[in-house]
Design a protein that fits this description.
Pantoate--beta-alanine Ligase, Chain: A,domain 2, 2 helices
């Protein structure tokens, strides 16, 4: 659309602004997803450590004392996390113990074991 004169027409400038705007819009969406998910591996590692710690605590209890617990929130530097313990009796000598750690970034992480009365 260039005639013999130097410069761009108004239509060319508007089209260039639209293309640049769409490019930055796409870049903003990608950047937002990266920022939201960049800490996810750290959250998973922390949730795994909390689940293992809770499972170790439950292993120290006697077989008879191992029971389900209601959801509890952690405090301090782990305030975004909560845990819930479920115990399902398989038979008189076996229980399935599951610890579920929840966090908004990962929904939940479950660690389970089979507890025996031997």
């Amino acid at each position: 659309m260039m005639t013999g004169k130097k410069g761009f027409t108004l239509l060319e400038l508007v089209m260039m602004i639209v293309v640049i705007g769409l490019s930055f819009g796409g870049l903003a969406v990608v950047t937002q997803q990266v920022v939201l998910n960049i800490h996810k591996p750290q959250v998973i590692a922390t949730a795994t450590a909390l689940a293992e710690k809770e499972m170790e605590r439950l292993k120290r209890l006697s077989f008879a004392a191992t029971a389900a617990e209601a959801s509890q929130n952690y405090t301090g530097s782990f305030s975004g996390y909560s845990h819930r313990t479920t115990v399902t009796s398989v038979d008189a000598d076996h229980k399935v113990v599951a610890v579920v750690i929840s966090h908004p970034a990962i929904t939940s992480l479950t660690l389970a074991l089979l507890r025996t009365n031997y």
